[in-house]
Amino acid sequence: MPDRILDSLAHPVVLSPMAGGSGTPELCAAVSEAGGLGFLAAGYKTAEAVAAEIERVRAATDRPFGVNLFVPGDPADPDVVEAYAAELAPEAERYGVELPDVPLDDDDDWDAKLDLLLRSPVPVVSFTFGCPDLNLVDRFHDVGTTVVVTVTDPGEAVAAVVAGADALSVQGPEAGGHRGSFVPRKPYGRSEPGLLDLLAAVRAAVRTPLIAAGGIGDAAAALAAREAGAAAVQFGTAFLLTPESGASAVHRAALRDPRFTSTTVTTAFSGRPARGLTNRFILDHPDAPVGYPAVHHLTTPIRRAAVAQGDPGGVNLWAGTAWRLAEERPAADVVREIGRALA
Ligand SMILES: Cc1cc2nc3c(=O)[nH]c(=O)nc-3n(C[C@H](O)[C@H](O)[C@H](O)COP(=O)(O)O)c2cc1C
């Protein structure tokens, strides 16, 4: 089946799945309806909630779309989580919330979501934070689903191809939100190759169609990604200000606020490296541990309270390096503008 779905798109433009509220069925449907490939984020949701979102997309469009799953990883170290909880006590006090007891090995309803997607198949399923095994990929192929795996280096790309992936979402370090690397401890920093170098390295390692993701904010960047070997380009941050996005008012305002002048990769909010606008919480917790998803659950009340209080200092403001190019306009306009440039 390789890239049958990618080939069928009027525009080779892919919506990033965006867990945590920014991705919505309306945004997914708008991108697919405009000729791109919309995605639903299943992360942090129950299987029932995902099923309901799939129904909403199906009611809005007949075009192909995808659902993204977080592959469960190793449980967090309880000592590490406890130490970070102690560090966060003043934050809890500041926002008037209690820090919860957190599960150390939450699997994000993995089995129930697989069951749902195998019983009631969707055109595309993508995996992030790990690689599905060959057997699982085969089961998706048997029900006619195209399988995409997020990769962040050539080694992960080869593993995903060996497992049978039909396409790879190649995520550069410029990307907004979480790094999709198979292991959360993969080092990050200044010495990493950028997206274009990464695409060239992955292109040299595998022949599978590549979807380029990370810091692509305009047609020029999309063209450069295609020149470097991508069959399609994926955008997350560029859709955050569209009316169809579910980004909070605090997140939207921060993306447009000139006082935010950079992005930072941090583990402070979730215990996994992720890129967001540099804010107070990131700066105050520079040595936050790796401990996903326990840290995600630990910070949830703080983040919720910060949003409720309209305080951009205490919530994750995920954004890629090209955030300044994001505009307030319908999602279909983004798809068509990029699509036309790539035609
Ligand atoms: C708000 C937000 C939420 C995200 N959530 C997910 C997710 O649930 N699953 C996933 O695979 N990637 C997620 N990502 C990462 C994207 O898949 C993609 O790599 C990224 O958006 C590309 O960089 P860009 O935001 O600069 O376009 C998220 C990104 C953002 C900005």
TrEMBL record:
<dbReference type="Pfam" id="PF03060">
    <property type="entry name" value="NMO"/>
</dbReference>
<comment type="similarity">
    <text>Belongs to the nitronate monooxygenase family. NMO class I subfamily.</text>
</comment>
<keyword id="KW-0285">Flavoprotein</keyword>
<protein>
    <recommendedName>
        <fullName>Propionate 3-nitronate monooxygenase</fullName>
    </recommendedName>
</protein>
<dbReference type="GO" id="GO:0004497">
    <property type="term" value="F:monooxygenase activity"/>
</dbReference>
<dbReference type="InterPro" id="IPR013785">
    <property type="entry name" value="Aldolase_TIM"/>
</dbReference>
<dbReference type="InterPro" id="IPR004136">
    <property type="entry name" value="NMO"/>
</dbReference>
<keyword id="KW-0560">Oxidoreductase</keyword>
<keyword id="KW-0288">FMN</keyword>
<keyword id="KW-0216">Detoxification</keyword>
<keyword id="KW-0503">Monooxygenase</keyword>
